[in-house]
Specification:
Layout: H1 11-31, H2 35-39, H3 54-75, H4 92-110, H5 118-122, E1 126-127, E2 133-134, H6 136-161
Antiparallel strand pairs: 1-2
Length: 162
């Protein structure tokens, strides 16, 4: 099947295409797991409660995605915007549905910014809760890589759980 791309030539559509690809790859890895592997403790020594199981990593990945959208909405005055603080990761299927919902919500929130100017990018620096600063392009690149990094982490967990 031929690959389809979003039509705008700007960075928003390019990053949404890559976000979609990263989410699809993440879902493929989830579908390769058993329900027991999904919920099993894969890293009992980590101090990060978001990284003990595939289930906890997926919860973290989803909530972070909504957090990035919230930071953008807040910076650009797209308020009111209620940040999603709970997702259903009770099963692999529900987690995949949540990943699809995140992608659709990202499209709805970001597509109106498809024609943002370089000046608007430079004039809107976003400070993250962890202290790092980003422009919207950098933050969306971070969002894509966040999914990819955690997909890789889950692949490593899978090898431990076999």
């Amino acid at each position: 099947m031929p690959k389809t791309f979003r039509q705008n030539k700007g960075f928003i559509d390019a990053l949404l295409d890559e976000y979609q690809k990263a989410i699809e790859e993440y879902k493929e890895v989830l579908h390769s797991l058993s329900p027991q592997q999904f919920t099993a403790i894969a890293d009992a020594v980590t101090l990060n409660k978001n990284c003990v199981s595939v289930q906890s990593v997926t919860n973290h990945t989803l909530l972070a995605g909504y957090g990035y959208l919230y930071m953008i909405a807040k910076q650009f005055g797209d308020l009111p915007y209620e940040r999603k603080k709970e997702v259903d990761v009770s099963s692999i299927e529900n987690s995949c549905a949540e990943l699809e919902a995140l992608l659709m919500h990202s499209e709805v929130r970001l597509t109106p910014k498809a024609n943002i100017t370089d000046e608007e990018i430079r004039n809107n620096i976003i400070k993250s809760p962890w202290g790092q600063t980003f422009d919207i392009d950098q933050l969306l690149e971070h969002a894509v890589m966040h999914v990819i990094r955690h997909r890789r982490q889950i692949e490593i967990f899978k090898t431990r759980l076999q």
